[in-house]
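Annotators were shown the component list below and the corresponding predicted structure, then asked to write short factual statements about the assembly.
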Amino acid sequence: MKNLYRPIESVIEDIKKETHNITTYRFRPKEPISFKAGQFVELTVPGVGEAPFTPSSNPAVTETMEITIMRVGCVTEALEKMKVGDTVGIRGPYGNAYNLEDFDDKNIVIVGGGVGLAPLRSLILALFENVEKYKRISIRYGARTPMDIVYADALPEWEKYPNVDVHLTIDEPYPGWQGTVGVVTVLLEDLPLLTTANVDDLPFTVENAVACVCGPPIMLKFVNMALLEKGFDPNQIYHSMERNMSCGLGKCGHCMMGEYYICKDGAVMTAAQVAKFEDPF
Amino acid sequence: MKEVFIGRENLLKLIGRWAKDHRVYVPVTFDIMNHPETPDYELVKEEVPASLELHGACPAQTPKSFLFYSREVVSKYPNSNPEAEVEAPPTVLVGPRACDLEGIKKFDKVYWSTKHFTEEYDDPFYIEKRENTTIVSVDCTAAKETCFCTIVGGKPYVDADFDLNISPVENGYILSVGSEKGEKLMAGSDDLTSEVTGGHHDEQKRIRGSVTEAIERQNAEFKVDVPYDKHELGSDEDAWAHVTANCVGCGACNRACPTCTCFLLWDQKADGGYERTRNWDTCLSIGYARTGGGGNSRANLPQRLENRIRCKMEYSRDRYKLVTCTGCGRCIDVCMGRIDMREAIKHVVTEMAKA
Ligand SMILES: Cc1cc2nc3c(=O)[nH]c(=O)nc-3n(C[C@H](O)[C@H](O)[C@H](O)COP(=O)(O)OP(=O)(O)OC[C@H]3O[C@@H](n4cnc5c(N)ncnc54)[C@H](O)[C@@H]3O)c2cc1C
Ligand code: SF4
Ligand code: SF4
Ligand code: SF4
Ligand code: FES
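Structure shown to annotators:
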């Protein structure tokens, strides 16, 4: 029988520092691993352990996979010490994917906080593959300081699409920063109106919108409240849930939240699915 | 159903025959450390141990020790084998009780998903052991004071879904065949067995009835109005804090439980490369739900004990259509704080009724 715990050897092909603690790695798995936007993989640092990450690259690219990773502990620190040419392990993909068919003709609001923009990047790049199918893609991104912004050089490129707008905010004033200040929910306050020239003529209606959110738990909590206040139906809000994960297969129990296994029923869960939990994030 | 009677001497001989081409584990009494009334498993070597104990209630360990090892290498890398390398010699496990067979159902659902449930991943390490293991279940002839199978829909004997079952009666045992695997174990054993008489049946019925009654009697005080499969225990902080007062978070309850299926993958250096081990894990430990950067959805002990009890009564019911507390009482037996599922549930239900 197939061994479902086995890591597939993958060579580090490129390393790009995004911020002082966030790095994007490009891996080339020895056996192709294809994934859909929203799905995650288990990444092994040999001898150190595994941790779950959502690829940040375009799902249409199947020979390589990029993952943007923040250094927070044991596995991520060991990964940071690795070099181009070194080998890691990857298994997956696991979990559910965004149902992109449901997004056709919609306004798509993408809300990211910190390294939370990384998993959303694979969704964004997947949407860009057929960008004309969507009414408008509004990207709202909050980082702690200007130094913590990931994909800094790609963001202006994204805005070149006629129906895409990108807005940034940083948590606190910072010397030289001219843009918005405040946590990411400030970018949602005037959601229907906040706009840039290229999308002026694209009206935004909450009824025809979906929101995809990823970031630290506290951010999910407040963004969820803000979106509900704006009139979003809980079924229109997709959160990327973070839980401790070991297997990714719906077996080890670590990601359990009530009867859900976040690694199988998530990690993308609607606000409606998690509404019955007192403090789901 | 095929049934035969066998005396103790001949049963020892029969088990000895199984041991020729199987690993056979039997429950025996231990003098040291263990509670004398609680037998535990021993591997049959040259001889079937004379201390074989088929009376009383469930042995200390659960079948998971044999179907899902507490620690097992599940992959080696680099150059890992795409096929699982499983060691699963033919095994006979003598001694599990009705509550233990109930417990295996949870393992089947989680690890043999495609056969028992709708999920897509099958675990070769479990399935091969499960397929190669024949279980010889045993009727309980007495209850421990912590047994409560009857209040969670169970009973202290097996009458369906078994391989081979032993009912201890006067001067011997009734052996009942319940599956093809059980049939195989009985092949060629006619020289050791005789016909079951009406007297044997009467005694089997009497013992089954009186043990059932004893368990019902000793649990009368824990009765609550909510049926066992309809609990919605909620997250009342005070109620759970009260239940958790004596808990130290050791996780012994998880390890002792026949339906705790959880594990942790742990990688380490080995033989010039690396190996991935799979280890039993316990949702009572603080690191269980900890996420990178220090977040923890169950940072407090009461939240973790709540998770364990609700996992048994509600979450597995909602996910697998199976209440997974089998009432075996082991979590109470091993708990240094003497935390009792039955009292805990009763307390939480009573507090909810007040609110
Ligand atoms: C679905 C999903 C997608 C994610 N996507 C991303 C992403 O794209 N980018 C990103 O930066 N982060 C992402 N994360 C978060 C990421 O998984 C964590 O930051 C990561 O697990 C931290 O691992 P660490 O070992 O460095 O941190 P630690 O704080 O050391 O460990 C985190 C947890 O992992 C466990 N653990 C640590 N070492 C071991 C070991 N050797 N064996 C077993 N368990 C161990 C510990 O129990 C601890 O609770 C995602 C998380 C999830 C659930
Ligand atoms: S065995 Fe008892 S003390 Fe230990 S974690 Fe379980 S309930 Fe707590
Ligand atoms: S009680 Fe805890 S350790 Fe046991 S199966 Fe449930 S989540 Fe896993
Ligand atoms: S929770 Fe306790 S009584 Fe219930 S099956 Fe597990 S160990 Fe037995
Ligand atoms: S990560 Fe193991 S069950 Fe979800």
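Statements collected:
1. The radius of gyration of chain B is 21 Å.
2. Chain B has a mean pLDDT of 95.
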